[in-house]
Design goal:
heterodimer; A: alpha/beta; MetI-like fold; Rossmann fold; eight-stranded mixed beta sheet; five-stranded antiparallel beta sheet; 23 helices; 13 strands; elongated; B: mainly alpha; 13 helices; flat; binds iron/sulfur cluster
């Protein structure tokens, strides 16, 4: 038992320090007056105001008394006063906290308002006042301090009682018919003793500081007795000639104050640990996991490298370089039980003027991919990629501080949630126009903001600029977010579920505006959505994501003509009640849930849900491969449209 | 009729928004007026209670102030005469009503010792305390909130453990040093060991430096801690990601986008410490020989100059109530939803 207790104490430097300091204080308080009392009381006319050194380590005061001996001897009364005041506060506070139980609701409310008025006044002022009432002196100062502490204790006890009343174990205990006394002793007391202990410890420290202030003012301990505050007050007039006489008791006060504060914190940390609450993960284990993942991923893909490279789904644009080029992108986050990877080994290119759609369920990694592309993944998230370049800018290597100068607003993001992505404290106009700061005048920026809102069919656009987000509906806020991205004249617009809060007509209009902008300015867009129907309407190429990986990449033209190659895409399309869906096919809905980003699989992530899965699917990870023109799929058994068409071709030839 | 109908809708459409806006504005004004009325009433009630308590507390405490003021050798007749002059021979309730009545006219009675009217003492001393307290409050807010935010930025996502550790250590230290003690420490350091700043009086701008530091350090530490916690909360919000995606300059990002969103919480949690700061002038003035109200309060307590004690205590209480009210008004003004005005 004993060694365990000691181990608990010394397991943290905080606890070790607090315990030792507290022990030192207690020892000084107990033996102080007996050992140093006489020396501290004896004036010595030959050594008035002697500086520290020699016989007097901390010097002497104006009467030639040894300062250190006095400080050590005064510890007892200083601590005793603080302890007694706290005791008074605890007892009266508990009584006061219990009063509302007896009183009616109305008196309860009155009491609460009296308490809060009382507590609105600084401790010092109240203590001063009560001391005036009772007259200066040790006992009266203690009572004054105790009374001053009473209301906050009362409030604390009341809150605690309310918490306990509604706690599960008390409710359960009552239902089980456990007697009140037993309930209190066995269940309530152990649970409240810890917070009370923490609160009391911290209060002793506060009481000590406040009491020393009273003594300092001459309202507490009276001569010839002395506590630390009194010593400080007495030394103040001579502070020029013998500052040590004031400093040493001051250090004692601060030391005692800090000790009780730390002891309170140590107690609190102790009870937190014992409570078994999940401790936050300590530090970020940057080393192994992701890099290990990366190397294995690298190895895995080495063989397919040429394959992936050779068969780009869509042709490169005339000036060669694609606008955005992502190769083998992975994103990792640390959690309490290891690393999770919401994005795994994603490769993607976007050409100038192209609109690419990314589709998938929530949790498929599509939003995280779009954030990684715009360098918005922050610590502790880790981004890894073989290549991540935008118009010749290496987004992986570029330093955070160069982003503004080099990238600026050339990539603009339309975020998903209109309720949380607008700053509630800034006007719409400010948020819309600030990207243009330094590029155009205020009036011009305003004009463009109004035009942008008008283009998205926003009513009263000029007035909106002066409003705050809270004054706008969800649909309007979403359009503000869209306008915010469009006003920047970005080369690449990343839109994350841009139309969820809009009704059908507005949605169509907004998408048309986006398409028009891309056509006119030659900008590109990456549109993320769970709604494949929206994307088919808007994009030229689709990327389908599942469990952090791209499972299919297909041109919209191919998709419409031949249908998808991956069973998952097929399921997404089939669950869509549009005119494009063949009516003769049964509506395919996938059973089950997509996997958690922390899960690892040896085979295809779709296998548990896939109607076409075989044993092979569970062991072999399918790679993204060209399965037919303008269609890449990561599936061991791609849907047979392609085969059907090749067969047809073969037949034709024959 | 029909042509009236034809003209009506556009007119209505044109005036509708304007009228709505006007309506919204008047409601907001109304809410404000009600808020201020309610708060002022509450303040007057608190003041009344404080005056009453202060009066009776001081009058009922032991001792004979007149005897003390005149000295033990003064003849009994003189004491009696002085008593009558001060109205101390009347029944307590009469004295109280008299005091209240005087108070309404700005008369706080006069000093037992000097005979000077308390209101003139207050008028003379209050400005010095106000200047000290006001400067300290402003300095605390200007230093602590941005400091907390900057530390939050530096230490977000568990980065820079050392910065975080030194920050909590230093703020913890300043929270454990009472104002008066820090005042003494500063006097020793900057007045005696390294005499660069004035340590007594209030005659120069430099004389404000040490008292303001002594008063503000603990409150700054507390508010900076709160600001760091709130700053971390705000930095994790989605709208900060929006702002980051715009690649704004760092100062714009943090001080324009993050700061306003944390102010409300910081002021709610840290506002009460400002009242404590003002109360601490009583002690700090003592150390720096600052000719303010706090100095007067302590002097008059020691001298049992009761009229001065009550008068000054009431002024102090008023100051604290006003500070708390100002924090509330600021909070209500910062709040876009006017919800706080209902309290
Ligand atoms: S690899 Fe197998 S389990 Fe995965 S999608 Fe293709 S058929 Fe289904």
């Amino acid at each position: 038992m004993r060694p365990r207790f000691l181990r608990t104490i010394f397991s943290s430097p905080l606890r070790a320090f607090a315990s030792l300091a507290l022990l030192a204080l207690i020892v000084i308080a107990v033996i102080g007056p007996a050992i140093w009392g006489v020396e501290g009381d004896t004036p010595n006319p030959t050594t008035l105001n002697a500086p520290p050194g020699g016989d007097h380590i901390a010097g002497t005061d104006a009467l030639g008394r040894d300062v250190l001996a006095r400080v050590l001897a005064a510890g007892q009364i200083s601590l005793l006063m603080a302890l007694s005041a706290t005791a008074i506060g605890v007892v009266l506070g508990t009584l006061l906290g219990a009063v509302p139980v007896v009183l009616g609701r109305r008196s309860q409310r009155i009491l609460a308002s009296v308490l809060s008025t009382w507590m609105a006044f600084p401790v010092l002022l109240v203590a001063l006042f009560i001391t005036i009432l009772l007259g200066p002196g040790t006992v009266t100062a203690v009572i004054a301090m105790g009374l001053t502490m009473t209301p906050s204790f009362g409030r604390f006890m009341q809150t605690l009682a309310a918490e306990i009343e509604s706690a599960d174990y008390v409710v359960a205990g009552r239902m089980l018919g456990i007697r009140r006394g037993r309930l209190f002793r066995r269940y309530i007391l152990p649970n409240i003793s810890e917070p009370v202990l923490v609160y009391v410890t911290i209060s002793i420290g506060n009481a000590l500081l406040a009491m020393s202030a009273l003594s300092f003012l001459g309202l507490g301990v009276q001569a010839p007795n002395y506590d630390w505050g009194r010593m400080l007050g007495d030394a103040l007039p001579n502070v020029y000639t013998s500052p040590w006489a004031a400093l040493i008791p001051g250090i004692a006060i601060v030391f005692a104050g800090i000790t009780f504060g730390l002891a309170g914190e140590a107690l609190a940390s102790l009870s937190r640990n014992r409570g078994g609450a999940a401790r936050p993960p300590r530090g970020v284990p940057t080393p192994q996991s992701p890099s290990a993942m990366e190397t294995s991923a690298t190895r895995l893909n080495q063989g397919n490298e040429s394959n992936t490279e050779a068969h780009l789904v869509s042709g490169r644009s005339l000036d060669g370089e694609p606008l955005l080029s992502v190769r083998h992108l992975s994103v990792h986050y640390p959690t309490s039980d290891g690393w999770v990877s919401p994005v795994r080994d994603v490769s993607l290119t976007i050409n100038r003027g192209e609109i690419v759609g990314v589709v998938g369920e929530s949790g498929s990694g599509k939003s995280v991919t779009s954030m990684a592309i715009n360098r918005l993944i922050t610590n502790p998230g880790q981004v890894q990629a073989r290549q991540l370049s935008f118009d010749g800018i290496d987004l992986l290597g570029i330093k955070e501080k160069d982003l503004r100068a080099k990238l600026g607003s050339r990539i603009a993001t339309i975020f998903q949630d209109p309720m949380t992505y607008l700053n509630p404290a800034l006007r719409i106009g400010t948020q819309l126009t600030e990207v243009l700061e330094g590029r155009s005048t205020r009036a011009e920026a305003r004009e463009r903001a109004i035009a942008g809102l008008k283009e998205l069919r926003m009513t009263k656009p000029a007035e909106r600029l002066n409003q705050f987000p809270a004054e706008l509906s969800g649909g309007m806020r979403q359009r503000v977010l869209i306008a915010m991205a469009q006003i920047a004249d970005a080369d690449l617009i990343i839109a994350d579920e841009p139309t969820t809060a809009l009704d059908m007509t507005v949605q169509h209009h907004v998408l048309a505006a986006l398409r028009k902008r891309c056509r006119e300015n030659g900008s590109s867009a990456l549109v993320v959505s769970h709604d494949i129907g929206v994307l088919v309407e808007l994009c030229t190429r689709l990327v389908v994501m599942y469990a952090g990986r791209i499972v299919e990449e297909i041109s919209v033209e191919q998709l419409l003509r031949q249908g998808p190659a991956h069973p998952y895409t097929e399921a997404l399309l089939a669950s869509l009640p549009t005119l494009e869906t063949p009516v003769d096919k049964p509506l395919v809905t996938l059973p089950g849930q997509p996997p958690h980003p922390g899960e690892t699989f040896s085979g295809c992530a779709m296998a548990p849900r896939c109607p076409f899965s075989t044993d092979e699917c569970r062991t072999v990870l399918p790679q993204l491969e060209l399965v037919r023109p303008a269609t890449k799929a990561a599936c061991l058994h791609p849907r047979n449209h392609a085969i059907a068409s090749t067969e047809r071709q073969n037949l034709d030839i024959a | 009729m029909s042509h009236e109908l034809g003209i009506d809708p556009p007119v209505a459409a044109a005036t509708e928004p304007a009228r709505q806006r006007q309506q919204a504005e008047t409601t907001r004004t109304h809410v404000w007026i009600r808020f201020l009325l309610r708060r002022t009433t509450r303040m007057i009630i608190s003041m009344f209670i404080i005056v009453t308590v202060a009066f009776f507390v001081v009058r009922m405490s032991g001792g004979d102030p007149v005897r003390d003021a005149l000295g033990p050798t003064a003849p009994m007749a003189l004491v009696e005469q002085r008593r009558a002059e001060l109205g101390l021979d009347a029944p307590l309730l009469n004295q109280y009503l008299h005091y209240l009545f005087g108070l309404l006219q700005g008369d706080l009675g006069s000093s037992f010792i000097t005979g000077q009217s308390v209101s003139s003492v207050v008028a003379e001393r209050l400005p010095k305390t106000l200047a000290l307290g006001f400067i300290a409050v402003v300095v605390v807010l200007i230093v602590a909130i941005p400091l907390g935010l900057i530390i939050a930025v530096l230490t977000q996502n568990g980065r820079r453990r050392l910065t975080e550790f030194s920050f909590s250590g230093l703020t913890g230290l300043f929270l454990s040093i009472p104002e008066y003690l820090l005042a003494v420490g500063l006097v020793v350091l900057f007045g005696i060991m390294w005499p660069v700043l004035p340590i007594a009086g209030s005659d120069s701008a430099a004389a404000y430096v040490l008292p303001v530091i002594a008063l503000g350090a603990a409150s700054s530490a507390l508010i900076a801690r709160i600001a760091r916690v709130e700053g971390l909360k705000v930095l994790g919000q989605d709208y900060m990601r929006t702002a980051r995606s715009k690649r704004l300059p760092k100062t714009t990002l943090y001080f324009k986008h993050a700061l306003p969103n944390m102010l409300t919480a910081v002021l709610t949690l840290g506002g009460t410490t400002l009242g404590g700061l003002v109360a601490a002038t009583a002690l700090v003035e003592q150390v720096f020989n600052w000719p303010g109200l706090g100095y007067t309060l302590i002097q008059s307590i020691s001298a049992r100059d009761y009229n001065v004690v009550v008068g000054v205590a009431v002024v102090y209480a008023t100051l604290i109530i006003v500070i708390n009210l100002m924090v509330d008004v600021l909070l209500a003004a910062l709040d876009r939803r006017t919800a706080l005005l209902e309290i």
